[in-house]
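re: the backbone from monday

yeah here it is again, tokenized this time
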């Protein structure tokens, strides 16, 4: 078992030390190092991460505020030069609170605590409830160094553009542009109400106004439906040929 992790710190030396320490722990797999919370948000949108090693005092967004904003939190270990965030870290239920400079012995102890917490999560995970009972009504994406809240039911459709996606909303004329993958955004949307109809598009089934010649009509937008997905789409819309 390996814990997929990222290290977040605005100081290059601190990132290098974290990287070296992580690589010495056999059950840790370093996915990426990040200079700030916004880079970390991009990684979390695109990758499955089990554990974050997180600095607190960073420009733009404090590590504590960043962690609190995440709708689905990985395990977290704060690595900081400041002791005055200990109470807040306890409220965020972090695995450990390491004070810089961190010895390898102390780092290893924290890593094992994270492994134990992860194993406990896996063993005690409850049976998943139906999506309608568990799906959040909003999520956050990174837009130009800010975390923007996206109400799920306002989403009409999502379009992939290489390393970015456009999220179209009923509440505004311009789409929200964020650096992410269509797969990552799709995982934040409830499966019962949304469907990937094309390699580049996800649609809100409730927003579909018409289907014509393998094109979904939502307002002024015409969204292609791949041949492979047409049958499933019609079934989801309770249409029988």
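seq for it, each position gets an aa:
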């Amino acid at each position: 078992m390996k814990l997929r992790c990222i290290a977040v710190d605005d100081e290059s030396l601190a990132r290098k030390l974290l990287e070296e320490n992580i690589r010495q722990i056999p059950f840790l797999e370093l996915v990426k190092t990040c200079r700030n919370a916004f880079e970390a948000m991009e990684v979390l949108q695109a990758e499955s991460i089990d554990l974050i090693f997180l600095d607190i005092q960073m420009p733009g967004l404090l590590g504590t505020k960043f962690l609190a904003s995440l709708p689905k939190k990985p395990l977290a270990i704060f690595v900081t030069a400041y002791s005055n965030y200990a109470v807040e870290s306890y409220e965020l239920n972090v695995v450990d609170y390491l004070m810089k400079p961190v010895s390898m012995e102390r780092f290893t102890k924290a890593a094992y605590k994270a492994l134990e917490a992860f194993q406990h999560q896996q063993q005690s995970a409850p049976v998943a409830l139906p999506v309608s009972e568990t799906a959040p009504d909003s999520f956050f994406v990174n837009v130009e160094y800010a975390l923007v809240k996206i109400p799920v039911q306002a989403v009409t459709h999502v379009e992939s553009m290489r390393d970015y996606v456009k999220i179209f909303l009923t509440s505004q004329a311009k789409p929200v542009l964020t650096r992410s993958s269509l797969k990552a955004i799709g995982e934040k949307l409830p499966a019962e109400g949304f469907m990937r109809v094309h390699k580049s598009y996800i649609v809100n089934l409730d927003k579909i106004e018409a289907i014509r010649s393998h094109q979904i009509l939502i307002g002024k937008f015409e969204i292609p439906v791949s041949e492979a997905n047409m049958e499933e789409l019609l079934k989801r819309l309770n249409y029988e040929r």
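The radius of gyration is 21 Å. The helical segments are 12-24, 37-46, 63-69, 86-91, 104-124, 131-134, 182-186, 227-236.
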